[in-house]
């Protein structure tokens, strides 16, 4: 059975120390100002966080295995301090680096991965469109080959890490023709930042994740070289679906960090907040809520790291993609929904103070809802789980 090693726990403590010193003192102000701390990304790179899954030949630190579990530990610990910074790492590696690492040519890897792994640059993942969310197969963005170049036209929505000052490239799905059966042929194409005709729209005004960089993208005859095709032509949709399987485990890790923080905040408040002459935690109405948070944290963590372990085992050839896919959906749907419940419970324990932005539970409450939506909604996860049982 899987377990976290002493090295894993040492790594967890290292990331926690970093998050407590570099993020925690500023998170509330950054959230208020909707400020993305681009100068923090190279520091995360120096810590090795963006290079965890990248081989040494491309500037990363992947080596003896277990890399995905290490990534989930980092995401959980960042997410425990601030959810926006957790998703910045998750998207930077899972959605920015992984498609290039998994499907890129040797030349593409050598060109893009060293800077991405070092935190000197960031990459985005352009799948969602204004009219194509859960129904990602309804992609309308198109790309045609013309004189050795892909000419891209269309729009993408809700794309993380796509408009930072260090964003270097966004990989997008686009229709590049039709299959023999008359269905859309969807391919993945890398569009570098600064390409004429590629416009990053103004940042969204969001409910939460205010520190995270999120934009809509538009493409008007944006031309990139033919060799910017990522993977095989017509395989883009399949590639991105496989990428999302990994992302669901990572979102579960982010959710686990959220639940853990709510457990810590609510426990401390219940021990120190006095009412009717005693701590409010002395009342079962409160203490049972704390117990529920503890159950959520333990369950989410177990589901997350079982799925991460299966992913690492699959990479080593000892487990199947089917097992990972099912475990990822189970972990994601439970952990994300538990995170939303955990923030609601913690806010209730804080009472009126929980409604005030000076307390972190308010920020986590706002941040949590998207966990049930991103990387496949709860409804999509239930559909995938049911399918695994032949339904």
Question: What report would you give on this structure?
Answer:
With 391 residues, this protein is α+β, with helices and mostly antiparallel strands. It folds into three domains: 6-120, Butyryl-Coa Dehydrogenase, subunit A, domain 1, CATH 1.10.540; 125-233, Butyryl-CoA Dehydrogenase, subunit A, domain 2 (Beta Barrel); 237-388, Butyryl-CoA Dehydrogenase, subunit A, domain 3 (Up-down Bundle). The protein has helices at residues 6-23, 27-33, 40-46, 67-81, 83-103, 106-118, 236-272, 284-315, 321-350, 360-368, 378-388, and strands spanning 122-126, 142-146, 149-160, 167-178, 184-192, 198-203, 214-225, 229-230, 274-275, 278-279. The longest helix is centred in the middle third of the chain and has 37 residues, at 236-272. It is globular.
List the helices and strands and how they pair.
Layout: H1 6-23, H2 27-33, H3 40-46, H4 67-81, H5 83-103, H6 106-118, E1 122-126, E2 142-146, E3 149-160, E4 167-178, E5 184-192, E6 198-203, E7 214-225, E8 229-230, H7 236-272, E9 274-275, E10 278-279, H8 284-315, H9 321-350, H10 360-368, H11 378-388
Parallel strand pairs: 1-4
Antiparallel strand pairs: 2-3, 3-7, 4-5, 5-8, 6-7, 9-10
Helix pairs in contact: 1-4, 4-5, 4-7, 4-8, 5-6, 5-7, 7-8, 7-9, 7-10, 8-9, 9-10, 9-11
């Amino acid at each position: 059975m899987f377990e976290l090693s002493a090295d894993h726990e040492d790594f967890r403590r290292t990331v926690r120390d970093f998050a407590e010193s570099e993020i925690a003192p500023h998170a509330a102000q950054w959230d208020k100002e909707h400020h993305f701390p681009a100068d923090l990304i190279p520091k995360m790179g120096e810590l090795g966080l963006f290079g965890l899954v990248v081989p040494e030949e491309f500037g990363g630190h992947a080596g003896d295995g277990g890399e995905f579990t290490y990534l989930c530990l980092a995401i959980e610990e960042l997410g425990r301090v601030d959810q926006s910074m957790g998703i910045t790492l998750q998207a930077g590696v899972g959605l920015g680096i992984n498609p290039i690492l998994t499907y890129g040519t040797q030349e593409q890897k050598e060109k893009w991965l060293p800077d991405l792994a070092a935190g000197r640059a960031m990459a985005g993942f352009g799948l969602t469109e204004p009219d194509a969310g859960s129904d990602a197969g309804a992609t309308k963005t198109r790309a045609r080959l013309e004189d050795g170049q892909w000419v891209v036209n269309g729009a993408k929505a809700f794309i993380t890490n796509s408009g930072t000052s260090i964003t270097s490239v966004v990989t997008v799905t686009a229709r590049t023709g039709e299959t023999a059966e008359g269905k859309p042929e969807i391919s993945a194409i890398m569009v570098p930042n600064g390409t004429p005709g590629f416009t990053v729209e103004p940042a969204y005004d969001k409910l939460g994740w205010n520190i995270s960089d999120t934009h809509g993208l538009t493409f008007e005859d944006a031309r990139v070289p033919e060799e910017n095709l990522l993977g095989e032509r017509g395989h883009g949709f399949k590639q991105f679906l496989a990428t999302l399987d990994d992302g669901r485990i990572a979102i579960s890790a982010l959710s686990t960090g959220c639940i853990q923080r709510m457990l810590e905040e609510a426990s401390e408040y219940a021990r120190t907040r006095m009412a009717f002459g005693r701590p409010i935690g002395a009342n079962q109405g409160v203490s049972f809520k704390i117990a529920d948070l503890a159950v959520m944290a333990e369950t989410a963590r177990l589901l997350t790291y079982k799925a991460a372990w299966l992913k690492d085992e699959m990479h080593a050839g000892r487990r199947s993609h089917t097992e990972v896919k099912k475990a990822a959906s189970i972990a994601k749907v439970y952990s994300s929904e538990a995170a939303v419940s955990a923030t609601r419970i913690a806010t209730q324990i804080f009472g009126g103070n929980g409604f005030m932005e000076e307390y972190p539970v308010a920020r986590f409450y706002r941040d949590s809802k998207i966990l049930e939506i991103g990387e496949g909604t709860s409804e999509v996860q239930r559909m995938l789980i049911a399918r695994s049982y032949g339904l």
